[in-house]
Specification:
heterodimer; A: 118 residues; mainly beta; six-stranded mixed sheet; four-stranded antiparallel sheet; 53% strand; globular; B: 113 residues; seven-stranded mixed sheet
Amino acid sequence: AQKVTQAQTEISVVEKEDVTLDCVYETRDTTYYLFWYKQPPSGELVFLIRRNSFDEQNEISGRYSWNFQKSTSSFNFTITASQVVDSAVYFCALSETPNKNRDDKIIFGKGTRLHILP
Amino acid sequence: EAQVTQNPRYLITVTGKKLTVTCSQNMNHEYMSWYRQDPGLGLRQIYYSMNVEVTDKGDVPEGYKVSRKEKRNFPLILESPSPNQTSLYFCASNRGNSNQPQHFGDGTRLSIL
């Protein structure tokens, strides 16, 4: 069955520090997709990145980077030189390849609340 | 502007009084979902729909109903709300299937007394 574990419930770091948010997933499928979403204090949910299981290249977008490792079933998210505006809840999510014999569900982790202290 | 619109944004009601939360998207998306967000539990999928007249249970469907009679609308129905359904609800949509990034509505905060 699908499962997403974000073991870090809450993290606090001082501004300008680097911080890594962990995401570990479980799936029986060989083709699947992983996502990260951000929920700032204002409450909306914002898509950050999607990665499919065949693409293990690390991704960098400005101060954000993602490390996908199939060997450890992890899809970790690193913020470099954190800023107060990065304070939010971050969710990792998983979906498997849909077909007529399988649900087309999306499973979210419980989220990690990140506090960036000035 | 591309958006997912939920109504109402806030609702306080009483146990047993049927209510509907509407969700509408203007992006011609096939896949639509409802989630509830509870402290310590993250986002949990209630129901999803892969297209018109096609709906399926997510992980926490008990106590909820949905319908998808038109592509743009995906209402969430609580026939007999109970206090354990007090939560923050999000509707989302995306093109294709569950493998695509989702666009979320702004959320509906429901309090069932």
